[in-house]
Write a structure and sequence with these properties.
single chain, alpha+beta, SH3 type barrels, 10 strands
Length: 188
Amino acid sequence: MRWEALFDDLEGQWLAEERRERDADVADRTRAERVRVLLVERLAGSLGCQLTFTLTGAETIVGTLDDLGADWLLLTDDVGHEIIVATGSVIAITGLSRSIDPAATARRFTMGYALRALARDRATVILTDTAGGRVAGTIDAVGKDWCDISEHPVDEARRPGQVRARRTVPTAAIVTVRKAGRSRFVPA
């Protein structure tokens, strides 16, 4: 009887140790896999989800993640305005899915390409920069690392008499570009 109790106890200890080793192995594998996951893969797994972004300059934006590119995100806020967010300006994200979608990838084109689409469409935008400044107007030209915006009232079309100033903004200084109307952003 004592031998059976001893053997049962030893078997229980052995099974518990085996379970601890297996759990530690699973935890190690999970950590090793997580190290290889890029933020863009997590974002791709959250396409269509409502997320909260804390951005440079303490700005917070809540919106549905509709698309993502090499260095930008496209959100739609609760009133239907589309907002391009520079990924380099993202400080934190709330609501991001833990799942990843390895098949989903970001579009290869950059923020400059997205800005050129807005310039082509002559869309009125509100651009926010890293210093917290905002300018309303129309993007006239886009270079490799800059854009020119003609400042005018957000409720007026870009006409020579309405343009107050022409501003050049380095792409690296852009935090968000918000379309003033409800027309859809369609990259070419």
